[in-house]
């Protein structure tokens, strides 16, 4: 019964979120239709199965792990193929999250899944398979220090916000991105008109709020769902010690009257595809292993400077 209740609550929120995004980010086809006496709506006219799936790494301009290199955040993209073949640019719906490789999203804790080449095959929730056929690109951003991104987890801080804002800048031609995590081949977002809407629940929604507060050009609307309004209340309540998993795989601990046992060390595992990815934070002495498109390099132990309760 609790699961059914959560789903029932989530469904009207998702419906409202969908309506808000689509009302703001009309695709070119819908915009043309709007000039005629016709409903302003998007319809599923594009193939989801034949969609373009790709990944880029956006330069955030930060060096959170202090390894002397600018941190790059991983951006997985699913976009309709037909508009690109017709020379039309599409708007973007974006969810920047720390949960894509650990806790997942939704009641089923869905995670990003990848093919052997490291391109995303499925995004969590319904966002890609709903919006892409309707003429939108869906962009899933791994926040700094999570999944396939560099840097450190910052729990709503500067790194979190800047790593998501940098993607909006890239979508509007103001930031650099690359086709691989460590390579030098540039990637351009020539397929989009830059009009971006951010959506997300909980932590993800809080990032949307933070990016909107920067006033970044190109972000047209946000739909934060049950977003966090106070990080202090969320992470520092004087309550029994919590063992809820953090995005990087380490248990979180809230401030408790009596100190409990220390959190176990962060763990990290990697897959074996061409873009093998490391899970866990970019902290500690363990090695981060990338695939043939990148190179292996040790993780910086200086992440201590930006560690939070999510990295024990």
UniProtKB/TrEMBL annotation:
Residue ranges of domain Xaa-Pro dipeptidyl-peptidase-like in the record: 67-234
Region ranges (Disordered): 234-312
Biased composition (Low complexity): 234-257, 290-312
Signal peptide start and end residues: 1-33
Top-level division of the source organism's lineage: Bacteria
A molecular-function term among this protein's GO annotations: hydrolase activity
Keyword Lipoprotein: no
InterPro entries named among the record's database cross-references: AB_hydrolase_fold, Xaa-Pro-like_dom
Keyword terms of this UniProt record: Signal
This protein's name: Putative Xaa-pro dipeptidyl-peptidase
Organism: Streptomyces afghaniensis 772
